Amino acid sequence: MEISHTEENYLKAIFKISEKKGKAASTNAISSEMKTSAASVTDMVKRLSEKELIHYERYKGVTLTRHGLRIATHLIRKHRLWEVFLVDKLSFNWDEVHEIAEQLEHIKSPELVERLDEYLGTPKFDPHGDPIPDKEGNFAERKQVLLADMKAGETGIVVGVQDHTTAFLQYLDRMQLVLGTSLQVLECFDYDESLKIRIGNGREETLSKKVSQNLFVQKEV
């Protein structure tokens, strides 16, 4: 069965929405994720249903079938492996690789993907801290919390981001809050829920609630 690039992108979008919200993806959420009209989503949902790649229940939303899930996770695997390759081997910045990986993820060769994985040393996480599924579709797990949920006195290491936009990643670069950076929460302000932190080198900064809600940290015990 032939699957178009657009159909693959829809399957990936449905997976990401369901993973984030822990429930079926609504057509409105899919429309927002794909930046397209509700009518286009309706047409695609019908097409994917006919190919038995999704289940759709009116008022309940869209879920992936086993086959649809396999396609979506394989697409995510390719995307994140290519991002590792672009950053680690071609020296791209982490804010530059998403659009390129969006194109490379549609290469069909399974052999290429497995050789790429082996060449990169079988990485478990991509340059943004997102888990890379293995060839069976299993995602690596680790204990992580949002910086916003940490308390004064707690320390940790930045391991991921929830916001993948160029603007946010470049902001983190300027703040020297990239993956692997150690930090300590010094104070939590009730007024606007901002945080005062100490970054590894001893520099102190105040971060907004928006920033702290988009940074994943592995707490040190």
Features:
single chain, 221 residues, alpha+beta, Arc Repressor Mutant, subunit A, SH3 type barrels, six-stranded antiparallel beta sheet, two-stranded antiparallel sheet, 42% helix, globular
Q: Count the helices. How many?
A: 8
Q: What is the number of independent domains?
A: 3
Helix content: 40-55%
Q: Main β-sheet, in a few words? A: 6 strands, antiparallel
Distance between the amino and carboxyl termini: 50 Å
CATH hierarchy: architecture of the largest domain: Roll
The chain-level structural class is alpha+beta
Coarse morphology: globular
Strands in their spatial order, largest beta sheet: 3-8-4-5-6-7
Protein name: Transcriptional regulator MntR
Subcellular location: Cytoplasm
Pfam families: Fe_dep_repr_C, Fe_dep_repress, FeoA
Function: In the presence of manganese, represses expression of mntH and mntS. Up-regulates expression of mntP.
Task: Explain what this protein looks like in three dimensions.
With 221 residues, the chain is α+β, with helices and mostly antiparallel strands. It folds into three domains: 60 residues, Winged helix-like DNA-binding domain superfamily/Winged helix DNA-binding domain (Arc Repressor Mutant, subunit A), CATH 1.10.10.10; 67 residues, Arc Repressor Mutant, subunit A; 75 residues, Ferrous iron transport protein A (FeoA) (SH3 type barrels), CATH 2.30.30. Helices cover 42% and strands 17% of the residues. The chain contains eight helices and eight strands, in the order H-H-H-E-E-H-H-H-E-E-H-E-E-E-H-E. The strands form two sheets. The chain has a six-stranded antiparallel β-sheet. A hairpin with a 3-residue loop joins strand 1 and strand 2. Helix 1 packs across helix 2, helix 1 crosses helix 4 and helix 2 packs across helix 3. The radius of gyration is 19 Å and the shape is globular.
